[in-house]
Design a protein that fits this description.
heterodimer, A: alpha+beta, 4-stranded antiparallel beta sheet, B: alpha+beta, 12 helices, 18 strands, 27% strand
């Protein structure tokens, strides 16, 4: 299952640091995100595009995780040679992460059979 | 009760609309907020990281410029209807030259035949001269400020809501600032309208959440969000900009003008809450250290289905420093494109990139960094992105390089263009440019070093 089926993401920039939020469509999937969307898995997805450390913050209040990816914007927004200096397109890497097929997922596509 | 009420003590709520979330944003949503949003304040946020540095360079060429070049056009559209409804306008469109921007507002009012108008100009963010005299460490990499000082063009402190509220306290119709932290533009309106103290951290926490949700305009009403089949948003061509209603007890919601496109939903609000946030329990602004970890969103019980209520914004006291962004000349970037289509397009684009690399080396072009991208294949997500992708039918080569020397930077585009007659077959649609680069780094400055001031200009 792709992360995209149960969560949505937004990328933001500050200097040479990228943040990508991972937000459950259904807050009941927060535990699943907590268990499965690990720093290791995120590092695997971003590969050497992230040169620095990766931090993960948990927001059970909105059913979300927030990843902070250091040294990820080719030296920083203002001097980068990238055609995407802000990393706007980098949330698409997150939603494409493969997760093990869960027993129960309440999110967008699987939700209809699990909601009731 | 609107903020223009004669007796401020009975004001129980304010409504603030966002007119722009960046310098080039759409124009007419602001008018929609004014005409159909029942707002008390309209806030335009138009300063990106390096906008002030670019404005400073413009001001050096022409002392009457250096503010947002769209200021006149934006205000021509809204000034009369805003004043007719008692809507006050707040904006950081002053950029590197807030005083000239204030004069420009008065010129627009005269053009429109308006009888009276007052503009409050907030000064004090420009700390360039002060920063020239100090040496501290850069926040980004710990290098000394002195390493970029010879190339420095600007240094501006991120002022807070207190400076905006001071501008509004003058009674002016329009408040123009230079650098102010984005959420603080909105928080300042709440301090003014609800007569909140700037050290009431219970209120500041919730106000900062509001300002943060509002600062990127359409990003909370369905912009930067749509993903067809997953996250569908109707009416993006008529996207409405957000309106925040804040009550004196801290109850608040986000909505948008009736009949506009887009949607304010739990999902758009959650995405925007975390936009450009690192540690969500420590979101540092000049006003406070906000904590988003207890924020809850819910669908409003009121009549409008699109409203989202938010609560739980908290804050700790502000730090003793202002963040200052320092703009400096960082050399030149040259760029060239050439596109290939049909069988073998990818191989031809790769060959073309190799040729350009070799040419630049043969000519001993001095570049700090050279980057070769294959647009349509690997330009955005680089090598790991295309492992499972089929070969694209069209590929656009993009070569970019940075140099301290303008002619060396320009050579990048030149060498891409010569591929027409010297490279693989079928190169098309070339493009080249060379631009000066303004870099931005940050330092912290003790709050006591920064003196703010309000100047009132009138017709």
């Amino acid at each position: 299952m792709k992360l995209r089926e149960i969560a949505h993401c937004r990328a933001g920039d500050k200097g040479n640091t990228l943040n990508v939020s991972v937000i459950a469509y259904d807050e009941r999937d927060f535990r699943l995100l907590q268990d499965q969307v690990t720093i290791e898995r995120v590092r695997g997805a971003y590969g050497n595009r992230v040169k620095g450390k990766i931090e993960r913050y948990e927001l059970p209040n909105i059913g979300a995780l927030n990843f902070v990816l250091h040294d990820a914007l080719a030296g920083g927004v203002t001097t980068s040679l990238s055609s995407d200096p802000h990393g706007k397109s980098f949330s698409a890497i997150m939603v494409n992460i493969d997760l093990p097929e869960p027993e129960v997922a309440y999110g967008r596509k699987t939700g209809h059979k699990n909601n009731e | 009760m609107p903020a223009s009420s004669p007796n401020k003590s009975i004001v129980t709520s304010v409504r603030i609309g966002c007119g722009a979330g960046y310098a080039g944003d759409r124009w007419e949503p602001a008018l929609e907020c004014v005409e159909r949003g029942a707002i008390d304040y309209l806030v335009y946020e138009t300063l990106a990281e390096r906008t002030i540095a670019l404005g400073q360079l413009e001001k050096l060429r022409d002392p009457a410029r250096g503010y947002n070049p769209m200021l006149e056009a934006r205000l021509r559209l809204v000034l009369k209807p805003a004043m007719a409804r008692g809507v006050r306008i707040v904006s950081n469109m002053g950029a590197a030259n807030p005083l000239a921007a204030g004069e420009a507002v008065l010129r627009v009012a005269r053009e429109l035949g308006m009888g009276s108008l007052t503009v409050a100009v907030v000064l004090g963010d420009d700390v360039t001269e002060l920063v020239r005299g100090i040496n501290v460490l850069l926040m980004e990499d710990g290098e000394p400020l002195d390493t970029i000082k010879p190339m420095m063009v600007s240094a501006n402190a991120y002022l807070g809501a207190d400076a905006v509220a001071a501008g509004l306290a003058s009674g002016a119709n329009v408040v123009i600032t230079g650098r102010v932290a984005d959420p603080s533009l909105f928080v300042g309106c709440m301090l003014d309208g609800l007569q909140w103290r700037d050290d009431d951290y219970t209120k500041l926490g919730q106000a900062t959440v509001a300002g943060h949700l509002m600062e990127c305009a359409g990003q909370i009403t369905g912009g930067y969000f749509a993903d067809p089949g997953y996250k569908d948003v109707a009416g993006l061509a008529r996207l409405g900009f957000p309106i925040c209603e804040m009550r004196s007890d801290g109850a608040a919601f986000i909505t948008k003008p009736e009949g506009s496109g887009g949607a304010v939903t739990l999902a758009t609000c959650k995405e925007q809450l975390l936009y450009e946030v690192h540690d969500p329990s420590r979101y540092v602004t000049p006003d406070c250290v906000a904590d988003f970890t207890a924020v809850k969103f819910s669908q409003s019980e009121s009549e409008a289905a699109c409203d989202v209520v938010f609560k739980g914004g908290q804050a700790a006291p502000r730090t003793g420093t202002y963040k200052v962004s320092v703009g400096y000349r960082a050399g030149y970037v040259g760029e060239g494109h050439m596109a290939y289509a049909g069988p073998g397009a990818l191989d031809r684009a790769k060959l073309a990139g190799d040729i350009v690399r070799e040419r630049l080396a043969l000519r001993k072009i001095s570049l700090e960094e050279l980057r070769v991208d294959l647009i349509g294949h690997s330009s955005l997500h680089a090598e790991a992105s295309h492992n499972d992708a089929a070969e694209p039918y069209e590929v656009r080569l993009r070569v970019s390089g940075r140099s301290q020397n303008k002619s060396d930077a320009a050579a990048v585009g030149e060498e891409v263009q010569t591929l027409y007659t010297n490279g693989p077959y079928g190169g098309a649609s070339d493009f080249m440019q060379v631009k000066e680069v303004i870099g931005v780094r940050s330092i912290l400055l003790d709050r006591s070093e920064v003196k703010t001031e309000v100047r009132v200009l009138s017709l």
